[in-house]
Amino acid sequence: MKSTSSGFFACCLALAVALMMVGCQATKTSPPPAVVSVSLNQSSVSMAVGTTKQFTATVQNTTNTAVTWSVDSTAGGNPSVGTISGSGLYTSPSQPGTHTVTATSVADTTKNANATVNVSSISVSPASAIVSPGATQQFSASIQGSSNTSVTWSVDQVMGGNSSVGTINITGLYTAPSQTGTHTITAASAADSTLTASASISVATISLSPAAVTVTSSASQQFTATVQGASNAAITWSVDNIAGGNAAVGTISATGIYTAPSQLGSHTVAAACTANTSISASAGVSVFLFTLSYPSSAIAPSASEQFTATIQGLTNTAVAWSVDGIAGGNSTTGTITPNGLYTAPFALGAHIITATSLGSPSSSVSGALTIDNYSPGGVLTYHNDDSRDGAFLEETQLTPSNVNSTQFGKLFSYAVDGQVYAQPLYLQQINVAGTLQDVVFVVTQNNSVYAFDATGKQTTPFWQINLGPSVTKNDYSGVSPVVGILSTPVIDATTNTMYLVAETAGTSTPFWLHALDVTTGAEKFGGPVAVTGAVPGTGLDSSGGNITLETDCYQRMGLALNPVTNAVYIPFGSCNHGWVLAYDKTTLKQTAIFNDTPDGGGGGLWASGGAPAIDDATGDLYLMSGADAGDQNFSQLLYNDSFLRLDPANLSALDFFTPDDNYTLAQNDADLGSGSNILLPGSSSYPHETLGGGKDGNVFVVNRDSMGSFNSSANNVIQSVHTGVKQYNNIFSTPVYWNGFVYYHPNADVLHAFSWSNGLLSQQPVSSGTIVYQMHGATASLSANNTSNGIIWDIDNSNYNGTGTGSGPCVLHAYDATNVATELYDSSQAGSRDTAGEALKFTVPTITGGRVYVPTANELDVYGLLGH
C-alpha cells in the first residue's frame, strides 16, 4: 500500500509540471507598467529672507515630465511662505521660518517630491554709528530662523579687520583706527556664509571755528562746525552745556549763530555730533559790554553832537570812529573826531556813526543820526516840525505874564490878494538883496507868494510872485471861488528852497510843483514840474486797468520834506481816492506814488490842512485817511478811514490801523481823516506812538511799530479817548503836544488839555477853556521857552460865512498852557485896536521871535508886545 501511494503522488506531480509547461508555451503576457517618480535637485536648503533659490524637478517613468510647484501646500506659494515660479525659482518671504517646497507630477498627481527650506535673517545693531579715532563700538548680530546663531565678523571684507580699517573681535567689539573715515562692518552666519548683514561705522572728528572769540553784548557771532570722516552728520549746539543756550549765557541757533547775552561773562560754545555727543569741539566766548550813547537822533545842519563809546570787560577800551563806513567821515557825511565829536554837514540826510573796538576789531556799535530840517528861530513846515506837534520851543519874549491886552496886541498887517489857508512860514536872518532879514512867507488862493519883512520895518514885500491863474471851483464847501495854493509849503533851510503846489488854470494838468528861492522867489531845479501819475487799479475812474490822479482833487494837506530820503511828499484828497506822490527835492523827478484805494474808492487825504508826520530817525510817514466813497473791502488793501504808515522810499503801506466801526464812519461821512496825527516823544517804557482823531471825536493812541490793522469787533490800539460834544463833526484839527500835555479844540466846543504820561492820555481833560468855537474848532500852536512859559494860541473862525468873502473878523486867543481855563488874551479885548482880518477856516497861527503871525481871508496880521 505504501508503494502505491508514493507512486500515485509522483505521477500527479509530473502531470502538473507537464501541464504548466504546456500552458506557458501556449499564452504570452506584458510586464507591469513602471511607477512614475519625482525627485528634486536638493532636499534641504538654507537661505536668507528675500532671496531666491532655483529648484529642479526630475520626473522618471513617463514621457510627461511637467510638474506643478507649491509652497506649504499652496500652489505657487504666497508672500507669507514664499513664492515659486513655474520654472521652480523660489523667492523666500520677508520673515524667517521653515517651509516645504513641493514638485508634483502632472502625469501622476500622486507623485511628488519635497524640499525643506530654512529661511533665516540676520541683522546687525546698530545699523550705523559714529566714533572718534581709537574709540570702541559694540556691535551685535541677531540671527532668526536658524538654530546656529554663531557669526563671523569682518571690516571692509577683511576678516577681523586690521589697523587701517579698525579691528573687530569675535564678540563684535569694534576698535576704530587712528584715522578718520567710513567703514563697513559685516556679520556672516557661521552656518551659511552667504547670510550676511552690514553696518556703517564712521570714524569722525569735529573742529570748531573760530576757536575763541570776543564779542560785545547782544551781538551775533557765526560759528562753523567742520566734521571730518562722516558726511551729513547732524550737529547739536550748546552754550555752557545748555542745549541751544538761554538768555543768561547766550543762545545759539541750529546753524551755529551765537547771540551773546546782555551781561559780561565768559562762556563755552560746543558743537557735538547728535549721534555721538562724545565727538565734540568747543570754543571760548568772552562777552564784553560795548555801548554807544548820544543825546539825540536828529540834529541841525552844521551842528555838533558828542558820541560816547563805553567798553567794559576789555583791557583795551579804545575805539575807532567812522561815518557811513568812512573813517573819520568827510565833508559830505559829516566828520567825527577821535574823541567822538560829530559835526554835521550843512545838508539834510541820514548817517550812521560807528565805533569799532580796537581791542576786538570785529566788534562795533552804531547809531543812526539824521540831519534835520532846522534853522534857528525858523518855522519851515506845517505845525512847526516833522512830528507835527505844533510846539515852538525857542520863544523867549512872550510869557504868560506879558501876553495880555495891556502889553500885547496887533503890531501891523499886510494885505494879500486872496485867502490864506496855509500856515505862514518863517526864516530868520536870510540874505535878501544883500541884507540879512527876518522873513515871513505867505501864499494865497490866487497863486501868489509873498516874502514879507517879519519885523514890519519894510511895509512892502521883499518880493512877490504870481504863479498863474487859479482854478475856479465851487464844489468844495468854503474853498471858493478859486483854488490856487491851498496847502502849506515846506522850506529846505539848507538850500533856501520853498516847495509848494499851485493849482493853475489853462495848463495841461492843474497841479504844479514849484521850487522857489526864498531870497528872490525865482524858480529852481528846472521847476515847475507837473504833478500827475497813475497806479494799477480797477476801482473808481479806472481806465485800462489804471487809476490816474484826478484833476478834480484838492491838494489840501501840507507838503512834507523828508530829511532821510530828501523827498518832497504831496498828498491829495477830496476826490475818488487818496494819493501821495514823492518828488526828489533836487531833480524834481517823481520817485514814488501811492493810492490808498486802487481797487475801490475813498481814502481821501485832506486832514483839515495837516501834513504827513515823519519819523526823522527812519523816514517813515504817518498820516490818516478819510472815506470819500466808503468802500470797505480790506481784502483788496483799501485804506479808508485809517492810520497809515508808509515806506519813505517807495510809499508802500508798511502798516495800518482802521477803527472797528469803519463802515459806520463811512456811512455817516464821519471821516477819521478830518483831523491829522502827531508823533509823540519816545521812551523805553512804552512803544513808539502816534495820536490822532476824527469827526466822531475818538482820539486813538496807536503803536507805531504795530498799528493794529482792522478787526471788526475790537480796536487793537493802545488807547482811545473821546473828546467833543457832538456825535459827529468833532475834530477838524491837528493836536498840540507839549511837556506832558495834549491839546485839542474840537468843533463847537472849547479848548481841552489832556495829560499824557507813560504813553497814555488822561480819559478826561485836566483843564478846559470856556470859549466855544463854532467853525470846526481850531488847530492850535504853542510857544514856550523849552518847558517853561507855555502859551497855547489858536484862531476862532466862528465868523466865517462860508462864501469866501465878506466874513467877520477872526479872533486870536492865547491860553495858559498849564491851565487852559486861564485865557491870557484875545484880539477882541482891546476894541478895534487888535481886530484881525476876515475869518476863514482851518487857519493856524505861527509864533516865533516874539511875534504871532495870523493868516486870514484877506491879510496877514502880526501880533506882539506893544512898543517892541
In brief:
This protein has about 850 residues and is mainly β.
Q: Explain this structure to me?
A:
With 868 residues, the protein is mostly beta strands. Strands 2, 5, 6, 10, 11 and 14 form a six-stranded mixed β-sheet that branches. Strands 23, 26, 27, 31, 32 and 35 form a six-stranded mixed β-sheet that branches. Strands 12-21-20-15-16 form a five-stranded mixed β-sheet, with no helix packed on it. It starts with a helix and ends with a strand. Mean pLDDT is 93; it is low at 1-26.
- The CATH architecture category of the largest domain equals 8 Propeller
What is the count of DSSP helices, taking H or I runs of 4+ residues?
2
The fold-level CATH name of the largest domain is Methanol Dehydrogenase, Chain A
Q: Domain count, please report it.
A: 5
Proportion of residues in helical segments: under 10%
Rg calc: 49 Å
Distance between the termini: 198 Å
The SS-based structural class is: mainly beta
What is the CATH C level class of the largest domain, in words?
Answer: Mainly Beta
Major sheet details: 6 strands, mixed
Overall number of strands: 81
CATH homologous superfamily caption of the largest domain: Quinoprotein alcohol dehydrogenase-like superfamily
Question: Which strand-content bin applies to the residues?
Answer: 35-45%
Envelope shape: elongated
Helices and strands in order:
Layout: H1 2-26, E1 37-40, E2 44-48, E3 52-54, E4 57-60, E5 67-71, E6 74-75, E7 77-78, E8 82-84, E9 89-91, E10 97-105, E11 112-125, E12 128-131, E13 136-138, E14 140-144, E15 151-155, E16 158-159, E17 161-162, E18 166-168, E19 173-175, E20 181-189, E21 196-203, E22 205-209, E23 212-216, E24 220-222, E25 224-228, E26 235-239, E27 242-243, E28 245-246, E29 250-252, E30 257-259, E31 265-273, E32 276-293, E33 298-299, E34 304-306, E35 308-312, E36 319-323, E37 326-327, E38 329-330, E39 334-336, E40 341-343, E41 349-357, E42 364-371, E43 391-392, E44 408-415, E45 425-432, E46 435-443, E47 448-453, E48 463-466, E49 471-472, E50 482-483, E51 490-492, E52 497-503, E53 511-517, E54 529-530, E55 534-536, E56 546-548, E57 560-562, E58 567-572, E59 579-584, E60 590-595, E61 613-614, E62 621-624, E63 643-646, E64 653-658, H2 662-667, E65 678-679, E66 689-693, E67 698-703, E68 709-710, E69 719-722, E70 736-738, E71 741-744, E72 752-757, E73 760-761, E74 767-768, E75 781-785, E76 788-796, E77 811-816, E78 823-826, ...
Parallel strand pairs: 2-11, 12-21, 23-32, 33-42, 43-75, 64-68
Antiparallel strand pairs: 1-4, 3-9, 5-6, 5-10, 7-8, 8-9, 10-11, 11-14, 13-19, 15-16, 15-20, 17-18, 18-19, 20-21, 22-25, 24-30, 26-27, 26-31, 28-29, 29-30, 31-32, 32-35, 34-40, 36-37, 36-41, 38-39, 39-40, 41-42, 44-81, 45-46, 46-47, 47-48, 49-50, 51-52, 52-53, 53-54, 55-56, 57-58, 58-59, 59-60, ...
